Amino acid sequence: PAPRTVLLTGAAGGLGTLMRDLLPSYGYELRLLDLRPIEGEPDAITADLSDRAALREAVRGVDAIIHLAGISLEASFDKILASNIEGTYNLYEAAREEGVPRIVFASSNHAVGYTPRPEAGDPLIPIDTPHRPDTFYGLSKSFGEDLAQLYWDKHGLETVSVRIGSCFPEPSSVRMLSIWMSPADGARLFHAALTAEDVQHTVVYGSSANTRLWWDLSTARALGYEPQDDSEPYAEKIVAEHGELRPGVEAHAYLGGHFVNDPPIWPY
Ligand code: NAI
Ligand code: 15L
């Protein structure tokens, strides 16, 4: 049966807020969880991913989980370890113990961030390109994808790992013209990931059908995802402001963009 009650972790965040607006129209009843309280949502669960008892209770009885909670940019290894690596493990354990059948995991393009971006005319980046994290943050997403594979192989817990590009109301850089996922397409993709049959562990790129797309959306489309948006209408203004991506500039050379060379707190 199609999932109805869905736990949304990271519900206070940017993407969580967008999805709280968009997913109910697909018929889901969302249970919300975040470290931070959410204004206007008195029933939201305020809990840290380190709190195993709270997670066990939070996942009890849901049909699926969309796991967005975690640090969403580069940070010290210790912080990434606690929130993204141990936190994601704690959530998977709670789901396994409570028999939740499926998780949609917010992976990131930064799991493969050191992959050179395709030049015009090059083939699209395939989904089975090797992990090449560009940060400790990206490394935690590579870990999450492997954890998801383990929980499928060992426990039969299904996951769709979505390597999200940039999901914001509008693209704001030249790189984002290639990897942007409109919020409406994000909701379409999460809906497909929740409802497709027999996903086992499927990894997909998460973006709109951008004219300047860098990666192969076929595994996402195989779930039933039909993207409706394209960043190209924003291109003229963004390119006029920033210029096209330039050869020889490190931050322009890889999928991960500036994450390869300017994490804000490097060196650790
Ligand atoms: P965000 O930083 O706005 O939201 C993350 C939320 O997780 C925050 O509300 C935060 O309080 C919560 N959180 C952090 N650590 C926690 C912990 N230990 N326990 C409980 N809650 C915790 O990030 P955003 O942009 O909403 O991203 C959501 C997810 O999607 C993240 O996992 C991020 O890595 C991933 N992602 C997002 C992309 C985007 O374009 N927005 C791109 C690629 C991946
Ligand atoms: C991510 O993984 C981040 O969570 C998001 O804030 C953006 O920086 C995005 O990647 C990106 O690559 O633009």
From TrEMBL:
<dbReference type="InterPro" id="IPR001509">
    <property type="entry name" value="Epimerase_deHydtase"/>
</dbReference>
<comment type="similarity">
    <text>Belongs to the NAD(P)-dependent epimerase/dehydratase family.</text>
</comment>
<dbReference type="InterPro" id="IPR036291">
    <property type="entry name" value="NAD(P)-bd_dom_sf"/>
</dbReference>
<keyword id="KW-0520">NAD</keyword>
<dbReference type="Pfam" id="PF01370">
    <property type="entry name" value="Epimerase"/>
</dbReference>
<feature type="domain" description="NAD-dependent epimerase/dehydratase">
    <location>
        <begin position="6"/>
        <end position="167"/>
    </location>
</feature>
<protein>
    <submittedName>
        <fullName>NAD(P)-dependent oxidoreductase</fullName>
    </submittedName>
</protein>
<keyword id="KW-0560">Oxidoreductase</keyword>
